[in-house]
Amino acid sequence: MADKIKSLEEIYRFSLPIKEHQIVEKFLGDKLKDEVMKIVPVQKQTRAGQRTRFKAIVVVGDNNGHVGLGVKCSKEVATAIRGAIIAAKLAVIPIRRGYWGSAFGDVHTVPCKVTGKCGSVRVRLVPAPRGAGIVAATVSKKVLTYAGLRDVYTSSGGQTRTLGNFAMATYNAIAKTYAYLTPDEWAPTKFEPTPYQEFSDLLVAQGKIAEKSSQLVEGAH
After folding, report:
1. CA-CA distance, 88 to 135, in Å (whole number)?
2. Which CATH architecture fits 95-196?
3. At what angle do helices 163-175 and 138-147 cross, to 10 degrees?
4. Strand partners, 9
5. Pfam families under this entry (predicted)?
6. Which residue from 84, 86, 127, 133 could staple onto 72, CB 3.0 to 4.6 Å apart?
7. Torsion-angle region of residue 29: left (phi > 0), alpha (psi -120 to 50) or beta?
8. Segment 2-25, tens digit of pLDDT
9. What is the pTM of this model?
């Protein structure tokens, strides 16, 4: 509300949780695209018989270093898709990109070899030279494209026919790109105060306003 945080990177830098999907929409806006990867009916056996619901798997991304994956189950297809899109936006993560060989032009591939796993599915991403394209199956290719990667070699194993696990394994792999501390980041780091510390006065003031309004509501009742 007060526009104190200017970008998603500030949120990621301090590992702050994103509790509302509108936060992601505000920073990424029209650049954020979404795609329904699969809608599958799932059943639960009850005393009255089988209860069928629909599970939607959705990927969102801005094709420029941010991607999210969401899964939602609901009685209606439209509700499942809507819930999966919100879940995917809340799960948006930053992707670190790099070069294969010489560091010229824009970043185009993963900075190092990374591996992700979900269920029995294991996905390995390997840096590729310019022009190689995304050498991957349809499912992982969509996730990598929405993340903004242009050249990647992939290797997968396990029950890749299970689309949900395959997509999640790819998502987990690219999430690890920021888990490695490369030599260019070995310099001493100057720690900055977190937004909670920096804007503590504002947060205290807003807390008092919320407390006063709740007291007024209680008094009215």
Report:
1. 24
2. 2-Layer Sandwich (3.30)
3. 30
4. none
5. Ribosomal_S5, Ribosomal_S5_C
6. 84
7. left
8. 677 888 888 888 888 999 999 999
9. 0.87
Q: In the 3-class helix/strand/coil scheme, how is the chain assigned residue by residue?
A: CCCCCCCHHHHHHCCCCCCCHHHHHHHHHHHCEEEEEEEEEEEEEECCEEEEEEEEEEEEECCCCEEEEEEEEECCHHHHHHHHHHHHHHCCEECCCECCCCCCCCCCECCCCEEEEECCEEEEEEECCCCCCEECCHHHHHHHHHHCCCCEEEEEECCCCCHHHHHHHHHHHHHHHHCCCCHHHCCCCCCCCCHHHHCHHHHHHHHHHHHHHHHHHHHHC
Tell me which architecture the domain covering 1-94 has in CATH.
2-Layer Sandwich (3.30)
Structure tokens at 135: 């050498």
> What is the per-residue pLDDT across 75-90, written as a single tens digit (0 to 9) for each?
999 999 999 999 999 9
Per-domain residue ranges of the chain: 1-94, 95-196
Q: 115, 121, 156: which is closest to 135 by C-alpha? A: 156
Length of the chain equals: 221
Task: Tell me the residue type at 149.
Answer: L
